[in-house]
Amino acid sequence: MSTLDKAAIAQLAEHLENCQLKAQDTPKITDQHPGMDWDDAYDVQDAVLARKTARGARVVGYKAGLTSFAKMKQMGVSEPVFGFLVDEFAVPEGAAIKVSELIHPKVEPEICFVTKTALRGPGCHVGAVLAACDFVLAGIEVIDSRYRDFKFDAKSVIADNTSAARFVVGSRIADAQDLDLRTLGVVLEKNGVPVAFGAGAAVVGNPAAAVAMLVNHLAARGQELPAGSLVLSGGITEAVAVQAGDAVTLKVQNLGSVGLRFV
Ligand code: OOG
Ligand code: MG
Fold first, then answer.
1. Does the ipTM exceed 0.85?
2. Looking at residues 75-89, what average pLDDT do you find?
3. Which residue among 2, 41, 171, 178 sits deepest, i.e. has the most Cβ atoms within 10 Å of its Cβ?
4. What's the pLDDT band for 2 if we cut at 50, 70, 90?
């Protein structure tokens, strides 16, 4: 079911994408459209993606968000959300990210999956995810809600592609079957100081379960997760605000480290 018509969906997608491209914030869209439903929210997200692919962007994968209790509590919402990743969000290891291109960036530690075979729901589960997983690696997601002061509800944040802005992945890969993803430890450092810690189980008990949830979500929208997809399974800790001059390093047990700078 949807409640918004095509014109309203297109207008909201244009507005939210312009906020992203111009680094301008906006009140949450449910203030204007209090009756919008989950389908509307994902329809707006799909329309944002269509604007990007029309300009030549390529989908490289997907992200799950609000999959940890720390993140749900930080953002005051209770449902996982899903978004897309396009090539223009990817930055190389050690990259300098210009804060002038962002509104109020935050970083989060994530366990990332790359698939070797397609995954289709409904009924996708941890076993299917592990069987389809080529390798796992560490990643830092830079989120940048387009909503003023990072204040939103789940439908608004879905329409805003779940605050996706940038991401970097590490270069040490491992076979998911050789690791216990639940006890995999992560340490996020800002300017050399450890600021957030956790283990994989913070993400719905097992980060692979967040990937299964993503696949089942895609199935409900008539899509599959193609082979070769990168999936960010969701922030393990609260997101940490960054500003120009900050350097961030993520260390993940068995998966090395990966870093970014903000200028
Ligand atoms: C929504 C995006 C959440 C995660 O990993 O939990 C997310 C937000 O907090 O702005 O990417
Ligand atoms: Mg995230």
1. yes
2. 94
3. 41
4. confident
Minimum CA distance residue for ligand 1 atom 4: 65
Length of the chain, please? 263
- Non-local (6+) Cβ contacts of 250 within 8 A are 109, 138, 139, 140, 170, 186, 187, 188, 189, 257, 258, 259
Strand partners, 251: 187, 257
What is the separation of C-alpha 113 from the centre of its chain, rounded to a whole number of angstroms? 12
How far apart CA 161 and CA 156 sit, in angstroms, is 9
Query: Atom of ligand 1 at shortest distance to CA of 67?
Result: 6
Integer Cα distance of 16 and 48 in angstroms: 8
Categorize the per-residue pLDDT at 79 as very low, low, confident or very high, splitting at 50, 70 and 90. Answer: confident
Q: Which pLDDT value is given to residue 12?
A: 98
Report which bound ligand comes closest to the CA of 65. Answer: 1
- Report the pocket of ligand 1 as residue ranges, CB < 6 Å: 63, 65-67, 71, 75, 108, 141, 143, 145, 157, 162-163, 234-235, 239
Q: What CA–CA distances, in Å, run from 52 to 13, 29, 87, 91, 215?
A: 11, 20, 10, 17, 22
Identify the CA nearest to 53 among candidates 161, 167, 156: 161
DSSP state letter for 219: H
User: Coil, strand, or helix at residue 191?
Assistant: coil
Judged by average pLDDT, the poorest of 48-57, 76-85, 166-175 is 76-85
